Amino acid sequence: MKVLVTGGTGYIGSHTCVALQAAGHEITIADNLSNSSPEALARIARISGTRPGFQALDMRDAPGLEKLFDAQCFDAIMHFAGVKAVAESVADPLKYYSNNVMGSIALFDSALRHGVTRLVFSSSATVYGENSRSPIREDAPVAPVNPYGRSKHMVEEILTEMCRANAGLRVMALRYFNPVGAHPSGLVGEAPVGTPNNLMPYLCQVAAGRLEELTVFGTDYPTPDGTAVRDYIHVMDLAEGHLRALEFLESHGGMHLVNLGTGRGTSVLEMLTAFQRVNQVPIPHRFGARRPGDTKETFADVALADRVLGWRTQYSLDDMCRDAWRWQKMNPKGYE
Ligand SMILES: NC(=O)c1ccc[n+]([C@@H]2O[C@H](COP(=O)([O-])OP(=O)(O)OC[C@H]3O[C@@H](n4cnc5c(N)ncnc54)[C@H](O)[C@@H]3O)[C@@H](O)[C@H]2O)c1
Fold first, then answer.
1. For this structure, is 148 an active site residue?
2. Test site for ligand 1: of 5, 6, 12, 230, most ligand atoms within 8 A of the Cβ
3. Does the pLDDT of residue 81 top 90, yes or no?
4. Which residue's alpha carbon is at the smallest distance from atom 36 of ligand 1?
5. What domain range is 27 assigned to?
6. Measured from the CA of 103, which atom of ligand 1 is nearest?
7. The pTM is what?
8. Which end of the chain is more exposed for a tag (fewer CB within 10 A), N or C?
9. How many domains does the chain have?
10. What is the pLDDT of residues 232-274, one digit of tens each?
11. Which of 6, 14, 35 has most ligand 1 atoms within 8 Å of its beta carbon, as the pocket-test mutant?
């Protein structure tokens, strides 16, 4: 298939491009490079032997999108492009509704007019309410608590209504839990700008000596070791999930919502211990109070992904820690 990958130079997009090319698909990436580097293109080429097509493009640039769809025919779109920092979304909600919602509308509008009917959308577990009971099923109540989560849910709603109105559309929104790790080659990975907010990139930067110590926020949660529990998923498994979604849409129309997680909760302490053991690096850390807004436990129910996509995660927590650290060591300053 010829696939348009928006946001394809970013973290999850770049890994999915590698997987798409390995499966024989031809890809064009469209990205405004606001949170990624063109060096990712060279790295994807080094791993897969093919440099993807690339178009520097903002999703809100409707004439630019028209030009792209006029020039190339696509069988499908994987839509990763968007902004994703929860705290930033609270401080600057318009940035989130503009990039994530307006950008998606401009993309879908142009795609529809050019007859592209297959689409995989990057959604997030942040659409679920804070009080959802884990394992969280796709039919759990949706109640995002910040503009980022709301922007993702709005796009899901838009896609649902587009599918109601157009019988020929085939759409899958994938609700990712906590993507971590990197390609085992160490050539592509997550390159956060500024101080990371998430546990794994933070651990990597403490291990590398770029940050002094890790603070474990909250030790009195009602979890087995008192620290918060999340569902970390290796980015390689996530990329494979996208391939399965694309295959599924070959024979299934309408709107589909599917969780991508491992179905297993891992606590902050478990992750910290695994990282130190697997990589043989000490992580200076201290224990602090709970962070406002954090929940005790979130992990996915993955039965639907198994049933409809025939997909299950293959990579372990040790793989996540090993691959994240390899990427960090090989690229201490990201793609710079
Ligand atoms: N990483 C996570 O923890 C996570 C979890 C759930 C969902 N998601 C979603 O998955 C998608 C990919 O996430 P990621 O972690 O790879 O993030 P990323 O920032 O690494 O990649 C996103 C890419 O989109 C590009 N982009 C942003 N706004 C754009 C715009 N308006 N026009 C064109 N390009 C634009 C960025 O330059 C970047 O290359 C995002 O939509 C994100 O919301 C990510």
1. yes
2. 12
3. yes
4. 35
5. 2-183+231-263+302-313
6. 31
7. 0.97
8. C
9. 1
10. 999 999 999 999 999 999 999 999 999 999 999 999 999 999 9
11. 35
